[in-house]
Amino acid sequence: MGEKSKAVGALTGGIKMLFKGNKVTHLEGHGKITGPNQVSVLGPNGEVTEVVNTKNNMIATGSEVTPFPGIEVDEESIVSSTGALSLKKVPEKMIVIGAGVIGVELGSVWSRLGTQVTAVEFMGHVGGMGIDMDISKQFQRIMTKQGIKFKLNTKVTGAKKEGGKITVSVESVKDGKVEDMEANVLLVCVGRRPYTQNLGLEELGIELD
Fold first, then answer.
1. For 124-162, how does the pLDDT look when each residue is reduced to its tens digit (9 = 90+)?
2. Under 8 Å between Cβ of 93 and 116
3. Whole-number Å distance between alpha carbons of 33 and 120
4. Is the torsion defined by CA of 180, 185, 186, 189 positive or negative?
5. What pTM was computed for the model?
6. Mean of the pLDDT values across residues 21-48?
7. List of residues 6+ apart from 38 with CB closer than 8 A
8. Can you point out the beta strands (E) in the chain?
């Protein structure tokens, strides 16, 4: 984890140097479009710390983890892809909701460190929507050899924390069979969505998908 933090620090520090070298002004805070040609910088408490008048605005806020209904991510025992990179110790058992490329990749990392990993996927294949089926089958075969278990055509109906363990309730899509599974860490990995929260888009009349 120390090496990961060091690499992230080096990369972000490099971006700051690029800003400086190309005369790009770096303002820290939450950016919100408050007019057709105006962006306000908000501080930690939501107060406006600076107002910038602009000619054009480009939104490049990236994405955020898609939440799973009824399951609250605390980034400790119930984690997103972000929290899965910052666990304090190697868990004995991990359940991954979603067998897409990110979920399986992170599951593979912890599996190689000694964790028993089970990926639960609603669809009947791994790798997510749009993946070539031959690649998906080969992908699953390789991951299975590494020790990852897959429960395909299975939906998660809930999860609860008790006594340091997480109980995940699942149901077969095909026959409705229900089952409870236990783990030390639950990784919620059902995709990402555009980050558009509190950017001022609605106030400007911009419709979101």
1. 999 999 999 999 999 999 999 999 999 999 999 999 998
2. yes
3. 40
4. negative
5. 0.82
6. 93
7. 51, 52, 53, 54
8. 30-35, 38-42, 48-53, 63-65, 78-79, 93-97, 116-120, 149-151, 154-162, 165-172, 178-183, 185-188, 192-194
